[in-house]
Amino acid sequence: MAKKANKPSVDKIVKKVNKEFDKTSSQIENLINDALKQFDSLQNQIQEPVRKLLKEVDELRDREMKRFNEEFERRLKEFHELQNSILDRLGIASKEASEEVKKTADTASARVSAAKPKKAASKPAAKSPAKARKAPAKSATKAKAKTPAKNAPANKAPAKKAAKPANKNDLTRVKGIGPATAKKMQDAGITSIEQIATPSDADNEKLQAFSKMKGFATLSDEAKKVL
Known about the structure:
This protein is an all-alpha fold. It folds into two domains: 1-125; 168-227. It contains six helices and no strands. The chain has helices at residues 2-134, 140-163, 179-188, 194-197, 201-207, 219-226. The termini are far apart.
């Protein structure tokens, strides 16, 4: 009888344990589901700011890249303009320098050509008085014997003059005409001293352009002296 009495009590205990176990399992499952829901919510809360932050970073990068490209193009344009300006200035400076050098060379050549005829004319004049003074000091016999030898240099003088004739195209030989005026006259068509000394009607018209220069009234007489 004791065994039969204990059996129902064991079944009750087993049923009670099973019931508690099911209840506990259900509670645990609910807790797990709640935790998963909270995790998903937290993940969504984190992802949204991160996504927004990434979007703002991308927009900021695009703006900065655009601004950098615009600034770079502007600086590059300024550099090209400065480079072109420097090259233009250097080109103008080199052109002016070449023109100045050319003018200086023309002036120097005109002065050299003007100086050469004067040196050729002065040499015979310097030698002839010395020879004339030495001749009377010697005896008549010696003078006759040495006359051909002394006259030899005098005979050579005309040969030198023929080798270096006076340049009639050098207008600076005329008193009152400098290199600059000579160049202007040559540009006007007066290219020889004869056109100043004995001018034609056409030459007179050309010379009238220089009527205001100093000594113009005596210019023709000075040119005749040179010829």
